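WARN retry 2 of 3 for item q-0093 after timeout on previous attempt; input resubmitted unchanged.
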Amino acid sequence: KQDVSQSPEALSVREGDSLVLNCSYTDSALYFLQWFRQDPGKGLISLLSIQANQKEQTSGRITVSLDKSSRHSALYIATSQRSDSTTYLCAVRHSAPREPVPSTQTADGAPTTSCLGVKETFSIKGFLY
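OK item q-0093 returned
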């Protein structure tokens, strides 16, 4: 069974500061890792995914790194904005092991996904003038 954990559980930063969110996983058979955001009352929005053979992916202010040796990924957000205040989740996809099956059935080798159960939230605090 794949276990996924994130830290910190909650984070508060000033608007304009950069921040780092961490994701650790237990299964070495990683296919890819994906980061999502989820605004209150809404569905998941994919931010970035990273393949097992990649070390870093960047899109705009967001960078995702992956270190397979330590089974760790980090989500970096540069120059945070108020609109970044939300819940972030990471999910790990790995290849499912093929189980022996009777000859009358076919083996399904579809990848399985493990998603974090505990949500991680941070808030952006604006400067007070």
